[in-house]
Design goal:
Layout (H helix, E strand, L loop, with lengths): L13 H27 L1 H38 L2 H10 L12 H9 L13 E8 L4 H12 L8 E8 L4 H14 L5 E7 L10 H18 L7 E7 L3 E2 L3 H11 L6 E8 L9 H17 L13 E3 H6 L10 H12 L5 E10 L8 H16 L4 H10 L7 H27 L3 H5 L4 H30 L11 H8 L4 H21 L13 E3 L5 E3 L4 H7 L14
Parallel strand pairs: 1-2, 1-4, 2-3, 6-8
Antiparallel strand pairs: 4-7, 5-8, 9-10
Helix pairs in contact: 1-2, 1-13, 1-14, 1-18, 2-9, 2-16, 3-8, 5-6, 9-18, 12-18, 13-14, 14-18
Amino acid sequence: MTDLEIPFEKDRKGHYRFFEILPGFLSYALVLAPLILSFINVTVAVFFILLYLLIAFVRGLAYATRAIGGHKTMKKHMKLNWQGLMADIDAGEVVKEKRIVRPKWHHKNLRLLPSRELDIRPHELIHALIIATVNESREVLEPTVQALLAADYDPKKMIVVFAYEGRAGREAEQRVMDLLKLYGANFKHAMAVKHPPDIPNEVVGKGGNITYAARKLEKYLAKEKIDPTRVLVTTLDSDNRTDKRYFAALSYLYCVVPKPLRASYQPLAMYTNNIWDAPTLMRVIATGNNLFYLVGTQRPHLSRNFSAHAQPMQALIDTNYWSTRTVVEDGHQFWRSYFRFDGDYRVYPFSIPIYQDAVLADGYMKTIKAQFSQLRRWTYGASDIAYIADKGFWNKNKIPKPDVLAKLLRTIETHVGWASGAVIIWSAAFIPPLLHPQSLAANELPLIVSRVQRIALIGVIAIVYISLLTLPPRPARYKRHRSLLMLTQWIFLPVTAIGFGALAAFNSQTRLMFKRYLSKFDVTEKATVDSSGKRTSTDADPSSQSKRGRLSSLRWRRNRTG
């Protein structure tokens, strides 16, 4: 397959439009089903609701169990001496160092090294970091660079690429150049790449920016005669802070998986940088995201790209980099790679975090708007459904059709559930009794549901417990009662699930139904709280930043949320 891009609107045929409409149609149908069935046959409606809630209950308990497992795995992996494990892989055998804890799977990996498709050792690897930025302040960008230097890894084996937008103006460019001048010499190489505005056939978004930067990186590697199979590319947003173990763990993983060039590598996205500062509703959403990614490490067969992730440079060259026609280029990259390699492709999750910001703007209403915009962008991943169907069934490929169908159905289920699940769980049980107050089955339904929900509290308690364990230390500016809020905040889960998650998903799917495509990556205002508790933020307009000058790292911030 050669053409991996999303087709232009004018080129989308009938089947493509059918699958763009399908998720929205199914979501609306599911939400309306309890109401429609109540008019047709109340008993059928009751059984439908009970069956749906029973499935949700079982899944919820499984989710809680996997969240516990994911957290245990993360804690274990954070304690490992990845440098020592890498040394074993370099040597092809256990190096005589008794203090290193070596898990059983490490010894298995050593035995399997001779059978690997590509013989690569950790010392041969170069890590390239593409840092996407628009007009973020130095106070946002600098800690991201500093986190790279603080890693348990040689920075002379890192290439840093600042991918900045030309449309952001001269001041944004100067900030990047200042950081390049200050930190560039610490790395093997560092460069700044300006993404020209208004490139034909590109949406205004991150995909075009990092693709343009990656092509410059490819030219540099060719000039220096660096083998792209030995280069791992990690994409970062401006606020992303790599854990110090990230590069060693990633290097290890790349050197032991069976087909390293046919894979992406997905770290944990942990929205904890400013979790103590974020308002209650945003904390619930951010913490829920953390738990979701912990669960994902326990289900590697279902893993997909998201946010910051790594991919071999050679694989990026083979796929012509990221899509420049979508605002969800990170998740879409899985499907792009999946079809490029005829299904011989997977994502390997690993339990080392990249720390990110929860949504926080200057003002509560601005924060709510920013959060909704972020979730709308994420839920716009429903646009991949039409792409999967088109590339899988209407374009020539060697992928077994049952595999394509299974992945298509799973993707449909995910996005339909995102839109409809919370609405049905929290409201459907009240519909039959309202319409049929004389029906015994209808009146018993809320009572049955309440009993099921009480049992489900076991899973909720487990989730709350894990969420507390993922928190960073409480800042000194907050008193102990702030910790209590971290516990009681979960009463707002129905509000966030419906008011943000479900509504954002319905918004995205409705857009797809009526061809109101998202063609711009929203640059979301974000703020931090200074030591006195004052919330501040930068202006979104680059021209106004010159009037404000450089601000403290504890004060003004804004960044593109990922």
